[in-house]
Design brief:
The complex is a heterotrimer of chains A (215), B (378) and C (402).
Chain A (H helix, E strand, L loop, with lengths): L1 H28 L16 H4 L8 E3 L9 H5 L5 E7 L6 E9 L8 H5 L5 E3 L14 E3 L24 H6 L24 H7 L7 H7 L1
Antiparallel strand pairs in A: 1-4, 2-3, 3-5
Chain B lengths: L1 H11 L2 E5 L11 E7 L2 E8 L7 H5 L8 H5 L6 H16 L5 H29 L4 H21 L8 E2 L2 E2 L7 H24 L2 H7 L7 H6 L4 H6 L6 H4 L25 H24 L19 E9 L2 E9 L5 E7 L1 H7 L1 H4 L5 H11 L3 H5 L1
Antiparallel strand pairs in B: 1-2, 2-3, 4-5, 6-7, 7-8
Helix pairs in contact in B: 4-5, 5-6, 5-12, 5-15, 6-7, 7-12, 12-15
Chain C lengths: L1 H10 L1 H5 L1 H38 L15 H11 L10 H6 L1 H9 L19 H22 L3 H32 L4 H7 L13 H17 L11 H4 L9 H25 L11 H6 L1 H26 L7 H32 L2 H32 L11
Helix pairs in contact in C: 3-12, 3-14, 4-12, 6-7, 6-12, 7-8, 8-10, 8-15, 10-15, 12-14
The chains are: A alpha+beta (215), B alpha+beta (378), C mainly alpha (402).
Chain lengths: 215, 378, 402
């Protein structure tokens, strides 16, 4: 007897649960889909909807960089390369090179926490691609720079909105790879070599020279 | 092993079928060598190692705090637990006290992460049984969770949030309300999910009485987490080996009861996950209500150099006990880190549990164990 | 077709002079028109399915190619035409190549007997239903061929599953059709349609409780024959990768897919013809509809509408339900559907005797009651859907194309 009731129980269960399931899927025919039509049909660019703490591509605001290499030491996978040299005048150092390999970066955020001045930070920029993976190495310094030196009571140089620096340095996706070579060191004081340096290399960050001048 | 299988197949007229490493329902790159007579399998032997990255070895070359982002990659569906276990082990090694607020934050994010992981677990199981829609309904809810966690720590998958000594960020403005709002909509949507798939007769018939793992076998194979509780073993690290802030909260440990069939079948494991999500909601509500004020990071030395010794920290991850055994030789880098992950044991039981199942049942078995390939191989 | 030819002869002197040639031209022309028509039906159905699936899964679905993504099916078809037609080295090359044709033929030969109007039919065979069951069985030979010829274990398993499933469910489907044929008293589709009326309470589905249940049995069985979820075991993605068509690519794969989509229409059309009144227009008698060519086209539109609704239901089921296991599939067929079908046939026979004995208003009342039951089912579905929207704290959205 039990088996007969099980038999009809099965039929009933199947019918009822399939009906219920179909009601759920039908109800979604009348509800708004949650798809975000990235990249071209979003109400506002996805970049602007990201939270403040979003860990996107790294950028360095060189005028505030002390060339302390704390970030390079904190990085577990050696993404950051910081090279310094003795200043030709024998006093202090020169920041020769600050490269971040964003093709290797795992966006853990350890370097930004190590940075003493906050010049290294994550940005909301997340779109970077290239035919040549070497193009994803971002060179934040294109010539030797005098590192920033913090003085008590003096504010750290103000930085542009996050993302602007690295966005300007990212190459177009189909750019040919050109090996990077450091520029010549030009002794810069406030205002001095600023204009001509900026004109020579359009990718260069504006204000780089002013920063080194103040420091 | 494989040669032996081949010989047997020739003599017994059995078919050898390679399922994976690239197969839609192996949940990552795992390979199962199926010996079977048509649809009915004699057994399925798991072959793992396709996703081995040597994470344990990497730990030996890195300072203690720098290893945290690597733990994210141990279990990318529930990275909070992976962070938490390692942080706990190192804290025990160093003897650091973690502030209460940090512990509460850890619990909140862990439980959020457990919901996210279980949503994938039950959704992927439904998908392996052939229903695609529940999976995407699960993903939909998980997306909201990802948004919450992204707002908290800046990443959606590899959080690197729970650090040695505390957590990396405090709640931003308004996140508390956002989490509460999410929980309020999540509960009715979970009921809808149940109506859509959990009670569905076809799913019940596919899972009930399939791949039964009894309590003794489960224990002897070292199953942990929902898989163990699905077999009716009352064991939950959150309650039985209390850590973090869990002793402060009221919650039930969900056990399999043979809901629609035998105790320890695939359906029990499915239901345990569904119920655990509801328990997680309870825990998060309590933690948000009782969130203490204070520091989020304990007092840490500038350079972490624990004394010689060893420590073990284990958390109840979405896939069960996830433990880190850290041995220190007195330098700033660990001498050895051993990760004990639930998925490895869960995979090892496949050979035992798959005897006499059909190929379609093997898919259900793998999905019901909720294994994740990076946790198996590490 | 024959009636139409007589009509043509009276109108067209060429047809009177060369009747054989004219008839040949008519048949070939009809064939070309029909294949073109149903190709144009099967293609957009893929778009509809993907859009519906999208909405049911809280997604949008393809919406970029053409207006609202409507031309997606053309783009996909074109892509498949341009792809390389790979044949595995170890495959049985001849069988591998020809396996698609039985599948294709099995589906498209059904269009011979599926009527769209009193005249719009390939051939009104007196054994139409038997013919239909016979040609759909061709599909299984093609699938077994592809499963075997691919020389892949996954394909083979898919082929074997398909064979077991189709052969078994043919029995259940036949029983369910028989239940409806008994009151109609003919195997010809036109006769079955003419037996019904245009209004829902005149349809065969509500003629008796037996036909009402047979409708559900046939619908389920034809899903199994058409390899649709919850019976898509031959191509079970999560188990067999892609089942019998794992090794196929390009054109040949497209043909399999195409046959599957066209088969969706066949499922809908057979049910429409046998159970849901076919091309009958409510309130118009057969003679009027036959004599007016515009009413014939209106009848075809009604037929296609009903069939499309059924196609939507199959799509809807596919995106709701999980898949059965192969032994459960067999169990369901032989323990549930076949005994059920036999019971329904017997019940239907009794009903014939009973209906002759009781006054007509009793049978009419039962038909109306069954119609109300069907309406209640549909209304209940919408009520539950509404409940789900409210419970999810959502506001309903009535735009279909987002």
């Amino acid at each position: 007897m039990g088996s007969v009731s099980t038999y009809f129980e099965n039929v009933k269960n199947a019918a009822v649960t399939i009906f219920e399931g179909m009601a759920v899927t039908l109800s979604w025919m009348f509800r708004r889909p949650i798809t975000i039509q990235y990249p071209d049909r979003t109400p506002e660019p996805v970049k602007d909807t990201l939270p403040d703490r979003f860990r996107g591509i790294l950028e360095v605001h060189i005028p505030a960089c002390t060339a302390c290499s704390a970030c390079a030491r904190a990085c577990p996978i050696d993404v950051i390369l910081v090279e310094t040299q003795k200043h030709p005048s024998g006093k202090g150092r020169l920041l020769m090179r600050f490269d971040i390999d964003i093709s290797k970066c795992m966006y853990c955020g350890l370097c930004t926490e190590a940075c003493p001045t906050g010049c290294l930070r994550h940005t909301p920029v997340f779109e970077a691609t290239g035919r040549d993976i070497h193009n994803l190495v971002v060179h934040f310094v294109d010539g030797p720079v005098v590192p920033y030196k913090h003085k008590k009571g003096r504010p750290v140089p103000a930085s542009p909105p996050p993302g602007d620096i690295v966005q300007a340095l990212l190459k177009p996706w189909d750019a040919e790879y050109v090996a990077w070579s450091p520029g010549e060191f030009v002794e810069r004081d406030a205002g001095g070599g600023d204009g001509e340096k900026g004109a020579a290399s359009p990718g260069k960050v504006e204000g780089g020279a002013t920063g080194s001048g103040s420091g | 092993m494989e040669n032996a299988l081949n010989k047997q197949a020739v003599s017994d007229d059995l078919m050898i079928l390679n399922m994976g490493p690239q197969h839609p329902s192996t949940h990552g790159v795992i390979r199962f060598v199926i010996t079977g007579d048509g649809e009915v399998m004699q057994r399925a032997v798991p072959h793992v190692g396709y996703l081995h990255r040597g994470i344990e070895k990497l730990a030996e070359g890195l300072p203690y705090p720098s290893f945290v982002p690597f733990t994210d990659r141990v279990d990318y569906l529930a990275a909070m637990f992976a962070n938490h276990g390692y942080a706990m082990a190192v804290e025990r090694l160093l003897g650091i006290e973690v502030p209460r607020r940090a512990e509460y934050l850890r619990v909140i994010v862990s439980e959020l992460n457990r919901i996210a992981s279980h949503l994938i677990g039950v959704g992927a199981m439904a998908m392996d049984i052939g229903a695609f829609t529940p999976f995407l309904h699960g993903i939909r809810e998980r997306e909201k969770l990802n948004d919450i966690i992204e707002e908290l720590c800046g990443a959606r998958l590899t959080y690197n949030y729970i650090r040695v000594g505390g957590v990396s960020f405090d709640f931003p403005q308004g996140l508390d309300a956002k989490i509460r709002a999410f929980l309020d909509t999540f509960e009715p949507l979970m009921e809808e999910f149940d109506r859509l798939i959990t009670v569905n007769e076809i799913l019940v018939k596919r899972c009930a009485n399939v791949a039964v793992i009894d309590a003794e076998t489960a224990k002897s194979y070292g199953l942990v987490g929902p898989n163990l509780r699905g077999s009716g073993v009352d064991w939950d690290l959150r309650r039985d080996l209390p850590y973090s802030a869990y002793p402060d909260f009221e919650f039930n440990v969900c056990l399999g009861r043979g809901f629609r069939g035998t105790l320890g079948d695939a359906y029990d494991r499915f239901i345990v996950r569904v119920q655990e999500m509801q328990e997680s909601v309870k825990i998060i509500r309590q933690a948000l209500d009782g969130l203490p004020e204070g520091e989020i990071k304990g007092k840490l030395p500038r350079k972490l150099k624990p004394a010689k010794g060893e420590a073990y920290g284990a958390v109840e991850s979405a896939r069960g006990e996830l433990g880190y055994h850290v041995i220190s030789d007195g330098t700033d880098k660990p001498y050895r880190v051993k990760i004990r992950a639930g998925s490895f044991n869960a995979t090892s039981i496949v050979e035992h549990a798959s005897r006499g199942l059909m190929i379609a049942d093997l898919v259900v078995l793998i999905a019901s164990l909720d294994v994740i390939a990076p946790e198996i191989d590490r | 077709m024959g009636d139409f030819f007589e009509y043509l002869k009276s109108q067209w002197s060429f047809a009177q002079e060369h009747p054989a040639l004219a008839f040949f031209l008519l048949v070939v022309g009809y064939g070309i028109v029909m294949i073109g028509f149903f190709s144009a039906f099967a293609g957009p159905v893929t778009w509809v399915e993907r859009r519906v699936a999208g909405r049911m899964q809280c997604r949008i679905g393809p919406n970029r190619v053409g207006p609202h993504g409507f031309l997606q099916w053309l783009a996909d078809g074109l892509k498949n035409f341009l792809k390389e037609d790979l044949i595995p080295n170890a495959a049985d090359k001849i069988l591998f190549r020809i396996a698609v044709y039985p599948v294709f033929a099995g589906v498209f030969l059904t269009f011979v007997v599926l009527p769209l109007g009193p005249w719009i039919v390939g051939a009104d065979l007196s054994v139409g239903v038997v013919y239909l069951l016979a040609v759909t069985a061709l599909v299984v030979t093609g699938i077994i061929m592809s499963g075997w010829a691919s020389n892949s274990k996954w394909s083979l398993l898919g082929g074997i599953r398909s064979a077991a499933q189709m052969v078994s469910y043919e029995v259940a489907a036949g029983m369910a059709l028989l239940t409806a044929i008994i009151p109609a008293g003919s195997l010809s589709f036109q006769d079955i349609i003419e037996h019904q009326g245009g209004w829902p309470w005149q349809w065969l589905v509500v003629y008796s409780p037996a036909t009402f249940l047979a409708f559900f049995v046939y619908f389920t069985a034809s899903l199994a024959e058409g390899n649709r979820t919850p019976f898509d075991l031959p191509e079970a993605e999560s188990e067999l990768v892609a089942g019998y068509n794992t090794e196929y690519s390009g054109m040949r794969f497209l043909f399999f897919a195409f046959a599957e989509w066209a088969n969706l229409y066949v499922i809908g059309a057979v049910i429409t013809a046998v159970f849901l009144g076919g091309w009958r227009i409510p309130g118009v008698d057969i003679a009027t509809q036959t004599n007016n060519i515009w009413l014939q086209f209106a009848g075809a539109a009604i037929f296609l509408t009903k069939a499309s609704v059924l196609v939507f239901v199959t799509i809807w089921l596919r995106w709701t339900l999980p898949r059965l296991r192969v032994d459960q599939l067999m169990l369901m067929c032989w323990k549930y559907f076949v005994p059920f079908g036999i019971g329904l046939v017997v019940l239907s026979l009794f009903w014939q005797v009973l209906a002759a004995a009781v006054p007509t208003w009793v049978t009419s009342a039962i038909s109306v009651l069954l119609t109300l039951a069907g309406a209640a089912l549909v209304a209940g579905m919408f009520w539950r859907a509404w409940y789900n929207i409210r419970a999810g704290k959502d506001a309903p959205v009535y735009t279909w194309l987002i």
